[in-house]
Amino acid sequence: MAETQSSPAKLLVLTIVSVRPYLYEVPHILALEEKTPFKFRFRTHWIPENYQGILSEWAEKGVPVDQRCVIMFRHQETGRFLPVRWCILQEVSIIGEVFYLRVSLGALPDIEFGKDARQVQWGSIQETHVKALGNGFSNDPGQPLRKLVFTTGLDDYVAAFHNTSYKGASKDKPFSNWDSLFLQYSELPEFRGIDFFKIIGLFVVNAKGTSRSVEISKVGVYRVLVSQRYALRIYQRRAELRVGENKIIDTDAAKSPTVYPVKLHVDTEAIRTLDGDQPVLGRYDVLEFLFRPTDGGAGQVTFLIVQLIWENAAHPDALKKFRLPLDIIPRRRDFILTAAFSGVLVSLFFRKPLAETVGLQDQLVLNIQTFSLFLLGVAVPSVQRVVQSTFSKFYGF
């Protein structure tokens, strides 16, 4: 039965095509952590009319809770489909003839690591996706697909994504899946010579050099503490210029930079970088950036921006940067002092009754309150803006 606006969607399929610059969304999405927000855009002629109706309804009334999605990649030259990752749809908006879909990235699909098992699995995934496309939509190689967004059943995709050959620890399984996806994408000529990245995580660094990981929040934000030192670790692998023993003759891809810097950009009022420059030196590495949130950033939401300083002749539109949101949490002492500041601030509105209660002159109470606000504002930089607005309100400067 054809799906209508009123019928519940089990799985929303979002398709990335192997056309520049859209194909570079694949390494971007693979670089990011779970729960990170990401935005897709599709013009109406890439979405069948009945699914436009579903999306329009969600834009007006809100997206169903926990609406699951799968991101797929279509290689136009061959008509081949490859998975990218799971996600949850958060919001739909429409501007003109373009649908914008904001998602929260989910887990990577389970992919077999063994080459033979993986090839069998790719065939199963291809069969599952072509079946989900349904009748009336051609997947002819070399031709564009006119159905990039649609809904379908969930169970067949869950069954197609598996990694039965993995024997390691469960916490390391995402890296096995990432490597399997990387190996498959690196065989496509469209990705030859570019670097793929994966954020390993954010880690607290102590005086002994050991570390523990920082959990990312439900809304995709890292919560970090003022003055604590952190390490951002990123895994890097380069898509080969050769497949097996056969050298790829591609003059543009051969010009891909082999060594280039990666820089960590921050809001310098909120973050101090301790080691914000790392070189990419070869085909695989782990890059580590060190930083410390400052008092000036307490209570703010800011970003770490990882920028790739490269000029790639073969891939001029390839991934150049990605970002991680941070919520900087004040120290416990700052919470106490901020509460004290708020208490003194509220007492300004009850100055006269307070002066009568304690038996002091009204002006003297005001002077004590003012001096207290000044001291607390100096002690806690995060409330200095409040101090300034308070002084402006009561004293006109």
Please describe what this structure looks like.
The protein has 397 residues and is of the alpha+beta class. It has three domains: 1-191; 195-329, Immunoglobulins (Immunoglobulin-like, Sandwich), CATH 2.60.40; 334-395. Helices cover 29% and strands 31% of the residues. The protein has helices spanning 25-31, 49-61, 115-133, 155-160, 173-185, 251-254, 332-347, 351-358, 362-379, 384-395, and strands at residues 11-17, 37-43, 67-75, 80-95, 98-105, 149-152, 195-205, 211-213, 222-225, 230-238, 242-243, 246-247, 260-265, 271-275, 277-280, 284-293, 301-308, 321-329. The strands form four sheets. A six-stranded mixed β-sheet has the order 2-5-4-3-1-6. Helix 9 packs antiparallel against helix 10 (384-395). The protein is globular, with a radius of gyration of 27 Å. Mean pLDDT is 84; it is low at 1-9.
Give the topology, please:
Layout: E1 11-17, H1 25-31, E2 37-43, H2 49-61, E3 67-75, E4 80-95, E5 98-105, H3 115-133, E6 149-152, H4 155-160, H5 173-185, E7 195-205, E8 211-213, E9 222-225, E10 230-238, E11 242-243, E12 246-247, H6 251-254, E13 260-265, E14 271-275, E15 277-280, E16 284-293, E17 301-308, E18 321-329, H7 332-347, H8 351-358, H9 362-379, H10 384-395
Parallel strand pairs: 1-3, 9-18
Antiparallel strand pairs: 1-6, 2-5, 3-4, 4-5, 7-8, 7-10, 10-16, 11-12, 13-15, 13-17, 14-16, 17-18
